[in-house]
Amino acid sequence: MGYALRAGIWATCPDANFRNGKKAVASATKALDLDPKNAIVMNVLASAYAETGDFAEAVRWQEQALMDPQYRDNADMQRRLELYRNKMPYRAEY
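Given the sequence above, the corresponding structure tokens read:
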């Protein structure tokens, strides 16, 4: 889960000095390679793609994450999907 946590910071940190979309995608992709059915990792990968401006991939991965029955009705994940559809990245609130 370390790869996903690192990717999440690089993708969603409110401080632009810590964001790096390219590194976030690489780290989240590695996390997904290690745990290919993990909806939370897919959620992070979606955030990473949104940070790079690839909103089509962000939407695709967020929709995939929401297919997991455990997260289907997750309001935060649904809100992120709407952000990506509107071509906006997600920013965490720390």
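The mean pLDDT is 97. Try to locate this feature in the token string yourself.
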